[in-house]
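Changelog entry: the Chloride channel protein 2 record was regenerated in this release. Current contents:
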Amino acid sequence: MYGRYTQDLGTFAKDEAARLRLQQENGEGGTPQPRRPSELLEYTQGRCAPCRVCALQCQRFLISKVGEDWVFLILLGLVMALVSWAMDFAIATCLQAQKWMYGGLDTNVLLQYLAWVTYPTVLITFSAGFTQILAPQAVGSGIPEMKTILRGVVLKEYLTLKTFVAKVIGLTCALGSGMPLGKEVRAAPGAGRAGSRRAPSSAPPLSPQGPFVHIASMCAALLSRFLSLFGGIYKNEARNIEMLAAACAVGVGCCFAAPIGGVLFSIEVTSTFFAVRNYWRGFFAATFSAFIFRVLAVWNKDEETITALFKTRFRLDFPFDLQELPAFAVIGIASGFGGALFVYLNRKIVQFMRRQKTINRFLMKKRLLFPALVTLLISTLTFPPGFGQFMAGQLTQKDTLVTLFDNQTWAKQGVSDEFEYLGILEAWRHPRSNVFVTLVVFIFMKFWMSALATTIPVPCGAFMPVFVIGAAFGRLVGESMAAWFPDGIHTDSNTYRIVPGGYAVVGAAALSGAVTHTVSTAVIVFELTGQISHILPVMIAVILANAVAQSLQPSLYDSIIRIKKLPYLPELGWGNHEKYNVRVEDIMVRDIHYVTLNCKYRDLQHVLHSTKMKSLPLVESAESMILLGSIERAQVGALLCHQLSPQRRLQALRQKALAEDGHRLSDASICFQISTEASSGAHAAPRKPLKPALKRVPS
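Regenerated structure tokens:
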């Protein structure tokens, strides 16, 4: 363990082998007889002895098989699918209750406003308070912490049962409030079908991708602890890291029902170096979890069959013209700037709240005041009869995405009255403005509201708000192209009209990829819509967005890591490549105090008084300087206080006194024997009284 184990281990192995050989020879002195295992001996008596032995052997076989990977991954996928489905059902119930309260008070606008504002405020306040009391580690997305844990850093209380309960309940309440937080949604059956008059389904919204990565990781950690009762392999730290990597893929895969994009996204987001041997684990668990999740939707009659969440019906024979590629490239570049601005704005809001000492001190005393105020502000601005009518305020994120991915063109030449708005599409129509104004107001308001809402101390993510904003921006570009070219772009003798829904898909993938610095959002979009007809525009836009965003700002998760000061080294951004030439010896501390194996109390006291380092290196000796490990300063102080406590000192003094008294008595007996032998020939001379061996000192 300390670099000196070779000889000791070899000697121990030889001694152990000799002992086992001798034990075997002693046991085989007579005729060798077949022996049963010791645990089977108590089952060998009685009428049902063979059945008992067979049952025990089957039990041991099953327990040995539980230790295999595929059993663990099946259990992980099943548990995550059930948790996701249960959370979706609870969130949909909360959102339906809000709609019922709002719709039942349509005769009084003031009561409608009170219901619209009070309901989310209560849920967000409860989520913040419950999380702070039970487990503050459950606040936020969870992906920055998982990036740190997968690097080998141990973060206490982040993967416990208490944090799991706080995350699930707090996240359900936060998403049930309808705030613009990280919330993935389930599309209505038939969404995106041209001319579809079908009402949106009451299917529950999906769980957030960021927090669900944390939830899946906690499930994997808890399953590992439970299964460690059956096999010791689950106590292996390296194996737990592999299972956590697979759990991150399950978290994304089951909430999007996108196993391929989920695995790729988890690799891009959480891992800097990915072990290929974990590849099949992630795909297997994510596919099984997504399958069970969609089967539960069919079983609950939310869906007719297993389909994509946002099934689109874009043209397949001619999805887009080559002359539209510059427009897709513009979406990618603009999304890169927008993603960098979102990360910058989010970080500045947090830093402003922390730097203002007066505000920070006040909010630390009134922890629930900040979430309540932010919720009150956002709910007031999205109130449908008020300012919310200019930004489709009554639509949930599910309905918003369903409408943004719609095939039809909402406006022709900027005039909105030529289009017959049906169902939830009516929210985008305003008698005093056209659809362009509504989309611009929606993008601007949702942008800063999402950046502000993600700073609330509740379990939440930021991926889905960014995804919706990107879809709205793509829809705005698509509607503009349709207005500029009302009859489509002419190609030879054929005329194909522009599909704004395809632009919305491109914008959603580009902006979410720019914020997270990932390319796999393109694959997630393909699995969400069930079509890859726009694969080329999506890839072009995502790559351009990543190129722009990475040159300006770190990813949202790296930004949160810097804010929380987690022990993680992110990748260097553009323009810092010369720092790759910096070596460790250029930045390391050379004059460092250390502890040796044979150091004395004086040396330890000198080290503790001469340095303020929290951790002290332990070396073999001052000559060899072989590093054996490290020990925390607090542990050294605790050990010294224990070893040198008054009780231990009194005990040591008593033992020393007893030892010296015994030594003095033995010397007296020897002197007595000598004097007796000497007195046989002559009289012994009178002796002086002996001085006491120990000085009397006050205790």
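The mean pLDDT is 78.
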